Amino acid sequence: MRKERLIVPLVVALALLWAVAQYFSSVLFERELARALEDLAARGELAVKRSDVERGWLESRGTLHLTPRFGQAWHLELPYVARHGVISTRIDGELRPHLGPGDRRLFGDALPSSPPTWQARYRTLGASLEGDLQLAPFIVSQAGRELDFRGGRITFGGVYGDWRLQARLEPWRLSDGPATLEAGPTVLESRYAYTEDAHHFNQQDLLKVERLAWRQPDLELDAHELVLHSRTVLDERELRIESKLTLDRLVTAEQVLLTGRLALELSRINADALRSVLAVLRDEAARGDAAQDGLDLLARLEPKLVAMLQDSPRLDIHAMVLDSPMLGLDAHGDGALFFDARQLSELSLVALGDPREQEHWRARLYGDLTWHQVPKVVALWLGLPLDTQDLEIDVVRGRVRINGRPLPPVLERLQ
Fold this sequence. Notes:
Elements: H1 2-43, E1 46-54, E2 59-68, E3 74-84, E4 88-94, E5 96-99, E6 104-105, E7 117-123, E8 128-135, E9 138-142, E10 145-149, E11 152-159, E12 162-169, E13 172-176, E14 179-183, E15 186-194, E16 201-216, E17 219-234, E18 238-252, E19 255-270, H2 271-286, H3 294-307, E20 314-324, E21 329-339, H4 355-362, E22 365-372, H5 376-381, E23 391-396, E24 399-402, E25 405-406, H6 409-412
Antiparallel strand pairs: 1-2, 2-3, 3-4, 3-5, 4-7, 5-6, 7-8, 8-11, 9-10, 10-13, 11-12, 12-15, 13-14, 14-16, 15-16, 16-17, 17-18, 18-19, 19-20, 20-21, 21-22, 22-23, 23-24, 24-25
Helix pairs in contact: 2-3
């Protein structure tokens, strides 16, 4: 009898413990989802919202909506169902892209197939998320054009403040009559780490295209191992973007036309001014003013956009290494380009379509670029002595001089 008397309270205690843990799991899931969406919206590029939200102890559901801050080029709809457990939550959802101002569905309208599904698992104790999305092959034809997509897989995961994404796409082909473009396999690896409200962030991306082929009756080009490394950092002081592009080889007529790499860095974009621009964009989008005239919006943002230049932005060309065995030419160089930030109030973005205003902006450019061991044919074309070793390209108030000389008349007219 004593044991039986203990069983009932024990069962009740276990039931209460399970209910509390279940409730705690659902609350944590909702909190982390809301925080992640708020920080994604704070990044600035996207407007993020949820609709049809139903919260429960055992199951939650809703629909996520991702759209560009301005414009109606696309809209991504992500309906989901989250089934809560004590240890983890399983999420099942669909991917429903919509295209254009008419909100035309990609799957169902443009493509006669069902939307792809995605799955994820949120672990309550570690507050981590892991998920994947399978992209099925499809072929779409319209007005003589055909896109042959052969599928792919996307995985994502991480914890609040540190997210990762990996994507692998099988080769795809776009044809338009006799012309075709084929790319792939393609691999994308991305990592995004940030502080609350995306006040600071660090994003690293790697994009690798194993082969890119262009075919038309009079031209065949094959690019192999096209790789882009990119790192974007927003800290307390500035926004910096570092990029490195490498090309293993570009082949035509069974000869190597081009090989090389290019490393660039854009820096000194004022961080506070950038954050103020993003804040205004968020407010405008929240008020539903996204459809207002572009010039009106630009006029409102102009002081803040121009303020982003107050630290004299700088573009560094850390390395430019281009070789063409087929043409017998090569270009190895480095340099930097600066923007003069004095008297920024004299500049106007709204009037940038006026050639005179364009000249005012060009006059703010200064810099230098060195082309090492310049080929003789280039020196001859520029009217320089054939024994010229290096080209010193100087930019002063937007005007270019080469080894102290003005540009040849043909190039001068292009400035």
